[in-house]
From TrEMBL:
Organism superkingdom: Bacteria
Entry-linked CDD domains: AdoMet_MTases
Recorded catalytic activity of this chain's protein: adenosine(1518)/adenosine(1519) in 16S rRNA + 4 S-adenosyl-L-methionine = N(6)-dimethyladenosine(1518)/N(6)-dimethyladenosine(1519) in 16S rRNA + 4 S-adenosyl-L-homocysteine + 4 H(+); adenosine(2085) in 23S rRNA + 2 S-adenosyl-L-methionine = N(6)-dimethyladenosine(2085) in 23S rRNA + 2 S-adenosyl-L-homocysteine + 2 H(+)
UniProt family annotation: Belongs to the class I-like SAM-binding methyltransferase superfamily. rRNA adenine N(6)-methyltransferase family. RsmA subfamily.
SUPFAM superfamilies tied to this protein: S-adenosyl-L-methionine-dependent methyltransferases
Any Pfam family the entry gives: RrnaAD
Keyword field contains Transferase: yes
Keywords associated with the record: Cytoplasm, Methyltransferase, RNA-binding, rRNA processing, S-adenosyl-L-methionine, Transferase
Cited function: Specifically dimethylates two adjacent adenosines (A1518 and A1519) in the loop of a conserved hairpin near the 3'-end of 16S rRNA in the 30S particle. May play a critical role in biogenesis of 30S subunits.
Species annotation: Lactiplantibacillus nangangensis
Subcellular location: Cytoplasm
InterPro entries named in the record: KsgA/Erm, rRNA_Ade_diMease-like_C, rRNA_Ade_Mease_Trfase_CS, rRNA_Ade_methylase_Trfase_N, rRNA_adenine_dimethylase, SAM-dependent_MTases_sf
Protein name: Ribosomal RNA small subunit methyltransferase A
Domain (Ribosomal RNA adenine methylase transferase N-terminal): residue spans on this chain: 36-212
Gene: rsmA
Length: 292
């Protein structure tokens, strides 16, 4: 059996054979260390019963490990130059499907329905393209698909935000989107040297595990994510100003915002970084009660 794709010599050989030059603009940093890949699959606790979504398979280094461990793998890759390469590198695995799409423009529920067997636990595993780590995570976490866990490599600086405490600089809309449904833990710090080419930031593998369903849920979930995003839209502004930017500055609207903040027991002058997930839920419901 052929050796792993994730090996510096084989990665270079594949790239040479196809004349592939990586596109930095697409965040292409390929993993070449089997230990790191093993660690990712181990952290995600993938079993033969699991279906896995992968974002950005690249030349297939992680995909191959996922295919060996999982029931099925559905991977989204934006760069069509990689399709013939993946055809070859993953030829031995009949449980992998590659979709040539931008993950930010993908209708994930429809894709899952069309391409994966039903009734298997769903996990998300990826070595993310770092230029869009935050929009990918925000999209996945505020979307309708409930993943059992999410194990993703990202830049360390973003990883720090996921488990941040209220009142810290790292605490933001992403933190709240994560903590709304998942528990975050840092699984491993990864050195730059295991990637080809090396990224110019430090990396970390983060594991997000689904929490039991919340007892306190917002009346309108999309509205909750909207209020969270708006709360942090201008980090130096207080909550009062950010809510006015969202809803408007007309006297009547201001009055409604004021009533909602009063009802929620929240001081308009504080910044969003002081609010817990539960307080954002209470605030969203109070705004909703004011018809905002
Ligand atoms: N999984 C491979 C590995 O670990 O070696 C490659 C990871 S590389 C960090 C990120 C991958 O995401 C690249 O293959 C890149 O082309 C792909 N990518 C970048 N933007 C994307 C997007 N919007 N949608 C889907 N894939 C994207």
């Amino acid at each position: 059996k052929e050796i792993d794709i994730a090996n510096p010599a084989r990665t270079q050989a594949i790239m040479n054979a196809y004349g592939l030059r990586v596109k930095k603009s697409l965040g292409q940093n390929f993993l070449t260390d089997p230990n790191v890949l093993h660690n990712i699959v181990f952290t995600a606790d993938i079993s033969q019963n699991d279906n896995v979504i992968e974002i950005g398979p690249g030349i297939g280094a992680l995909t191959e490990y996922l295919a060996r461990a999982a029931h099925q793998v559905l991977a989204f890759e934006i760069d069509d130059r990689l399709l013939p390469i993946l055809d070859e590198t993953l030829a031995d695995y009949d449980n992998v499907e590659i979709i040539n799409q931008d993950i930010l423009k993908t209708d994930l529920p429809a894709m899952i329905e069309a391409h994966l067997d039903a009734d298997h636990p769903l996990k998300l595993v990826a070595n993310l393209p770092y230029y869009i780590t935050t929009p990918i995570l925000m999209g996945v976490l505020s979307g309708p698909i409930k993943f059992e866990n999410i194990v993703v490599m990202m830049q360390k600086e973003v990883a720090d935000r996921l488990a941040a405490e209220p009142g810290t600089k790292a605490y933001g809309a992403l933190t709240i989107a994560v903590q709304y449904r998942m528990a975050a833990e840092l699984a491993m710090i990864v050195p730059r040297t295991v990637f080809v080419p090396s990224p110019n930031v430090d990396s970390a593998i983060v594991k997000l595990t689904a929490l039991p369903p919340r007892t306190h849920v917002p009346f309108d979930e999309p509205a909750f994510f909207k209020v969270v995003k708006a709360g942090f839209a201008h980090r130096r502004k207080n909550l009062w100003n950010n809510l006015q930017s969202l809803f408007g500055k007309e006297p009547e609207t201001k009055n409604m915002i004021q009533m909602a903040l009063d009802a929620a027991g929240i001081d308009p002058r504080i910044r969003a970084e002081r609010l817990s997930v539960d307080e954002f839920i209470t605030l969203t419901d109070a705004l909703h009660a004011e018809k905002l």
